[in-house]
Design a protein that fits this description.
Elements (H helix, E strand, L loop, with lengths): L1 H78 L3 H14 L3 E8 L4 E7 L5 E3 L12 H7 L7 E2 L3 E2 L1 E2 L2 E2 L5 E11 L3 E10 L1 H8 L6 E7 L3 E4 L18 H4 L1 H7 L4 E7 L2 E8 L12 E7 L3 H48 L4 H26 L8 H27 L3 H41 L3 E4 H11 L1 H6 L2 E5 L6 E4 L1 H18 L7 E9 L3 E8 L29 H13 L2 E8 L2 E9 L8
Parallel strand pairs: 16-18
Antiparallel strand pairs: 1-2, 1-9, 2-3, 4-8, 5-8, 6-7, 8-9, 10-11, 10-14, 12-13, 13-14, 15-17, 18-19, 19-21, 20-21
Helix pairs in contact: 1-7, 7-8, 8-9, 8-10, 9-10, 10-11, 10-13, 11-13, 13-14
Length: 613
């Protein structure tokens, strides 16, 4: 029998260890995932901001390119300047729009008739007639000739080329082309080259130590890249460097969708977006691809940090599991020794021995519950009373058992045995009642902490949530001699975040305990609710000393308090008002205050779901 018990104990211990290891691995995995997501969140926010800002800058530049061309063409058509004054009109355009490189007039054969360009020192030069070129072979001339009278052609982004050579220093350029008609020049094309260096400089300034911005002009090349040698690969006739080569998986996704939320690619955190171009079908400006990538060393560092946190959780759980196993084995050994002593001492009273064995097992279970209660005693001061009563009952049981042991050695009478049974039953009933009370308190604590940790938008019962909060603060209420009356109906429900709701009520109650009452035994707080067709109003009313008139108007502002000398920060009511707005689209205000008390009113709209929390 002993051998079988020993084998079972070892088998059970082995199963328990395997279970603890499995649970530790699962908890470690989820802790790792949660911690990594939390650490990545600032990067996600930064990358989304980089993408949004870059998209605004690029779209604004494209819109500006088209708008400038239309306005200038319209002005030229209205003024119809003579040939010798057209250059002056071109110069006026440069003065209004400084981010221009060239303005040219091409005839129907591609010959430059007029070209005004900006030198590296920002001075304007009108190119001599002998230096004018024929642009008939350039793609933008072919595309421009086919335009309808009022159409605008926006070219792809490239490096400016003159006389077959890429100009240095580089001049990133985008061109606007349209057909035009001048009395002096006849029909032809108006071509404006826009300088993209300021735009690229603004885009580059969006880079952070953790995340870099990449901009692809279509699928052929990068025009902005953390590694400058990968920029302008097509224009400089270098090895291909583009989104298709570098991140083919992202390119395939962007071919079917305009935006990609943050994901991990090649051990980096990446966010991407495609800016659709309305000119790509005619060989003009292609779609623009925006990518933000974390630096190569950022994600590994975050993964190490998350792994360390997960390992800490897993080791803690393993230690806890082994401690439970150790206490269980010690507990079983103690029961076995006690059982052996009882059997030896009570051979003459087999029936009494069986009853006492059952009693000992029940006592062991009570001791186990008491041990678990002691482990959670720190959660709330209110647990002291039921746990203390349970301990007292168990102590009484020990005294009864010791007394029974002595009486058994000296000669146990039937009256003594019945007295032992009667007292044991009463003591166990008392212990059982207090144990149920402790369980109820722990459930309230667990439900309250779970609601605050989960923080999901749901429909919840107002009275139950406040009751859980009351239990958690019962010790403070007793300390300040305050009674709380929860006058809210059981069936009242509101939609929102129960964790945020309990936090708001707790702030009001804590504020009341700290500021409203002086010494006395008639201190009272009443919590009531009134339903309206479009809202629910919950009031928290105390019979304290009221709020000083000097701070009433600023009471919800941060750092406003009348007890800064007692280390109060003055942030509680400010946070309560902020949470009311963020979590419920509601409001909190002082409904009345005087020397006879203060009433706070919380308004919860019934038909508005908060958009941000």
């Amino acid at each position: 029998m002993k051998l079988q018990q020993g084998v079972l104990r070892y088998v059970w211990s082995f199963i328990w260890i395997v279970f603890v290891l499995c649970v530790a691995a699962i908890v470690g995995y989820f802790a790792y995932a949660d911690k990594l997501a939390s650490l990545q969140h600032p990067i996600r926010v930064t990358q989304r901001s980089q993408i949004d800002t870059a998209s605004v800058l690029i779209n604004r530049k494209i819109s500006e390119t088209e708008t400038v061309m239309r306005l200038f063409k319209h002005e030229m058509e209205l003024l119809q300047p003579e040939k010798n004054t057209i250059t002056r009109a071109f110069r006026a355009l440069f003065s209004v729009y400084p981010e221009l490189l060239q303005v040219r007039w091409l005839d129907d054969n591609g010959n430059e008739k007029i070209r005004l360009e900006k030198a590296p020192d920002d001075t304007l030069h009108s190119v001599e007639e002998s230096a004018l070129q024929n642009k008939a072979a350039r793609y933008y001339f072919s595309a421009g000739i086919q335009l309808a009278p009022n159409e605008i052609f926006i070219t792809p982004i490239d490096l400016n080329i003159e006389n077959g050579e890429v100009q240095r220093p580089f001049q990133p350029t985008i061109r606007a082309v349209t057909k035009a008609e001048q009395a002096e020049l006849g029909s032809g094309l108006l071509v404006i080259n826009f300088d993209l260096r300021p735009l690229l400089s603004s885009l580059k300034s969006l880079n952070t130590p953790e995340s870099a911005l990449l901009v692809g002009a279509g699928t052929s090349k990068w025009i902005l890249h953390p590694i400058e040698s990968k920029e302008w690969s097509v224009d400089l006739i270098k090895a291909p460097a583009n989104i298709v080569v570098e991140t083919p998986s992202l390119w395939h996704q962007l071919s079917t969708q305009d935006s990609i939320t943050t994901q991990t690619v090649n051990n980096t955190v990446v966010t991407a977006q495609r800016i659709n171009s309305s000119f790509r079908e005619t060989g003009g400006l292609p779609d623009i691809y925006l990518l933000t990538k974390s630096r190569d060393d950022v994600l590994p560092a975050l993964q190490i940090n998350a792994f360390q946190t997960a390992l800490l959780y897993a080791l803690g759980l393993c230690v806890f599991g082994l401690l439970v196993l150790f206490l269980y084995v010690k507990h079983i050994q103690r029961l076995q020794r006690l059982s052996k002593v009882i059997k030896v001492e009570r051979d003459s009273l087999k029936t009494a021995l069986d009853q006492q064995t059952v009693l000992i097992k029940e006592l062991a279970e009570s001791q186990k519950l008491s041990s678990l209660s002691i482990m959670v005693a720190g959660l709330a001061h209110e647990l002291n009373t039921p746990v203390g009563a349970t301990n007292m009952a168990l102590s009484n049981l020990r005294n009864l058992l010791d007394s029974l042991n002595r009486q058994a050695n000296e000669g146990l009478t039937k009256e003594q045995f019945h007295h032992f049974i009667s007292q044991t039953d009463k003591t166990l009933s008392l212990a059982n009642d207090n144990n149920h009370r402790a369980i109820s308190l722990v459930k309230g604590f667990k439900r309250l902490s779970f609601e605050r940790a989960k923080d999901d938008f749901t429909r919840f019962k107002v009275r139950q949530t406040i009751m859980d909060l009351e239990r958690s603060m019962a010790g403070l209420f007793k300390q300040h001699h305050v009674t709380v009356k929860n006058a809210i109906n059981d069936d009242l429900e509101i939609e929102g975040y129960p964790g945020a709701f309990s936090q708001i009520i707790q702030i009001l109650l804590s504020n009341t305990l700290a500021h409203a009452f002086n010494d006395g035994n008639a201190n009272q707080v009443i919590i009531e609710a009134t339903s309206f067709p479009d809202k629910v109003e919950i009031t928290v009313t105390d019979n304290g000393c009221g709020i000083p008139e000097s701070i009433q108007e600023q009471i919800f502002d941060p750092f406003i308090t009348s007890k800064r000398h007692k280390q109060h920060t003055g942030l509680g009511l400010h946070m309560a008002k902020a949470w009311m707005y963020q979590a419920f689209n509601g409001d909190i205000k002082i409904k009345r205050t005087s020397h006879r008390g203060t009433q706070f009113a919380l308004t919860f709209p019934l038909s508005t779901i908060p958009s941000d929390h």
